[in-house]
Amino acid sequence: MSKPNTVSQALGEIEKAYATILSKLPLTNEGTESTPKRAAKALVELTQGYFTTPCEKIGEGIFPHDGSGVVHVKGLEICSLCEHHLLPFIGNCSITYIPDKKMLGLSKLKRISDIFARRLQVQERLTEQIADAIEKAIQPKGVLVVIRSVHLCMKMRGVCEKDPETCTVVRKGEFANNQLLTMQYMAESQHTPKL
Ligand SMILES: Nc1nc2c(ncn2[C@@H]2O[C@H](COP(=O)(O)OP(=O)(O)OP(=O)(O)O)[C@@H](O)[C@H]2O)c(=O)[nH]1
Ligand SMILES: [Zn+2]
């Protein structure tokens, strides 16, 4: 079957596929009548990262930078779907970069992480893709991306682990060579949600 290339095409086909899946379950509840439509809409929303690119989302959000220092943003929420089970993994991402001649608008860091999170993923690739996109956009001296998350496929099924946390780290440029700097920002990246 050819791959749908527009959202509306995808919606119709996914809705039909969900109706087939539900027809195989011994459902007795009437509340599921519109479920194929809703579930299709949800899946398209959760995979909207396939329908956009970092370049498109960053737009005009790159600015000149002429100082020294480090940019560190933590607590960027990650909501993604594991590519093996189509179950969510949810957590947070911290991005640290050492700018050279350019810097990114802060919101663009969230937009970049969302583009790749809203695809079917493994956490390792997601972490790598975020770091690569930042490197490509602004050629910083170094990038460090840390994601901590909980995979529901480990919690709700299979091994049914009560409190699993997965941490993935990607170090580029100066972070790849500097253990101390990496450790400093790894420690900083621990996110305590605030009310
Ligand atoms: N490395 C990596 N593994 C993941 C990620 N998300 C899910 N997995 C793992 O992918 C593996 C899939 O292994 P399989 O043996 O094919 O699947 P499974 O039978 O569901 O495995 P169990 O969960 O052990 O029952 C499991 O170990 C999952 O925990 C991820 O982001 N990164
Ligand atoms: Zn999984």
Automatic annotation (TrEMBL):
Keywords: Hydrolase. Pfam families: GTP_cyclohydroI. One of its GO terms (cellular component) is cytoplasm. Pathway: Cofactor biosynthesis; 7,8-dihydroneopterin triphosphate biosynthesis; 7,8-dihydroneopterin triphosphate from GTP: step 1/1. It is an enzyme of class 3 (hydrolase). Residues 15-187 form the GTP cyclohydrolase I domain. One of its GO terms (biological process) is tetrahydrofolate biosynthetic process. Its EC number is 3.5.4.16. It catalyses: GTP + H2O = 7,8-dihydroneopterin 3'-triphosphate + formate + H(+). GO terms for molecular function: GTP binding; GTP cyclohydrolase I activity; zinc ion binding. InterPro entries: GTP-CH-I_C/QueF, GTP-CH-I_N, GTP_CycHdrlase_I, GTP_CycHdrlase_I_CS, GTP_CycHdrlase_I_dom. It comes from the Eukaryota. Belongs to the GTP cyclohydrolase I family. PANTHER family: GTP CYCLOHYDROLASE 1, GTP CYCLOHYDROLASE I. NCBIfam families: PRK09347.1-2 (NF006825), PRK09347.1-3 (NF006826). This is GTP cyclohydrolase 1. It comes from Blepharisma stoltei.
